[in-house]
Specification:
- 31% of the residues lie in helices and 30% in strands.
- The chain is of the alpha+beta class and 327 residues long.
Length: 327
């Protein structure tokens, strides 16, 4: 337990999200769009529109990935955005991309990767910006627009909720990037059906909140969800679903390509697990949401270790969470 906590605390993947704290120096946590509040801090911004929500999100691509595997970088730029929309209970509408690249071969590889996953997830590319110039390093960012009838928000986890981890169980590792590719091994129809479960959960009222497992891995995504909701949790580390041959510390910091953290009422857990059954997806309860804003790791032998105190050591330092801790 001690080694697990130390290993996770020392990870750059986990500390990378701390840089979000700089955002609050320039932008308020609530923006106003046509008289309605839009909260910052979710996987996608949710704008009330026509009885539902427009969803807006963007992702920049990890520079080393862009350099070493430009085709995969292009694919990932679409996939991460698609996950952000589905994790909010929505469905993607379209994407635009911004690419700077002076290398023609690399440019073709990047665009090929974007095209591949845009077609795979039925998300049209409707524009963007391309620049060449003399830049020695390429840079890629992708913006996505989606829509939702009902939301799954990171700000809505409730005390007593079950924490559920959902990940693709079959895949392969790109170990240099802690990237578990469980999406490209699927047929297009299966990949879309797996994602479609998320808006179904929102529309059927089966989940309180959701967060996609991002580049900060499962543990980073759990911390972000809990901080947004001003809650804590007990995480049962022995119950975390692992692909065969993958270590726990590495897995908790991995981007799994298809992966989500859900919080939901215990009476809904079995119904939610049934939705994922038979789809080559690991779906497991890994803990419970608590009112105390501390995150504990717990084993089946009832050993318990404090991992993070969200009341004192903020993760993203969201102003709303900071104010609540000071009350």
């Amino acid at each position: 337990m001690e080694n697990l906590v130390k290993s996770l605390h020392c990870s750059e993947r986990l500390s990378e999200k701390n840089k979000i704290t700089n955002v609050w120096n320039f932008f308020p946590q609530f923006a106003i769009v046509e008289g309605n509040q839009v909260r910052l801090g979710d996987d996608a911004a949710a704008i009330e529109y026509n009885g539902g929500y427009l969803l807006a999100a963007a992702e920049g691509v990890h520079q080393p990935l862009l350099k070493l595997n430009p085709h995969l970088a292009g694919r990932t730029s679409v996939l991460t955005n698609v996950n952000d929309i589905y994790s909010m209970g929505g469905r993607p509408l379209a994407i635009v991309d911004v690419l700077f690249s002076a290398d023609a071969d690399k440019t073709n590889e990047i665009f090929s990767g974007i095209q591949y996953n845009a077609n795979r997830y039925n998300v049209p590319v409707i524009g963007g910006h391309f620049g060449g110039g003399e830049a020695s390093e390429s840079a890629l960012a992708v913006f996505i627009l989606g829509k939702a009838a009902k939301l799954l928000s990171s700000f809505n986890a409730k005390e007593g909720d079950d924490l559920i981890m959902v990940v693709g169980g079959e895949g392969k590792f790109y170990s240099d990037f802690n990237f578990w590719d469980s999406s490209s091994v699927l047929k297009k129809t299966d990949a879309l059906h797996h994602l479609e479960i998320l808006p179904e959960l929102a529309e059927e009222g089966l989940a309180d909140s959701a967060k996609d497992i991002s580049m900060a891995g499962a543990i980073g995504s759990i911390l972000m969800l809990l901080e947004c909701s001003q809650k804590g949790a007990e995480i049962h580390v022995d119950d975390i679903p692992l692909p065969s041959g993958v270590g726990l510390a590495k897995w908790m910091l991995t981007f799994p390509s298809y992966g989500f953290i859900l919080s939901l009422r215990p009476e809904n857990t079995q119904r939610v697990r049934e939705k994922f059954r038979g789809r080559e997806i690991l779906c497991q309860k890994i803990g419970e949401v608590r009112a105390e804003r501390k995150v504990y790791f717990k084993t089946k032998g009832n050993r318990k270790k404090l991992f993070w105190d969200l009341g004192r050591g903020y993760y993203m330092d969201i102003p709303e969470s900071r104010e609540a801790a000071n009350e």
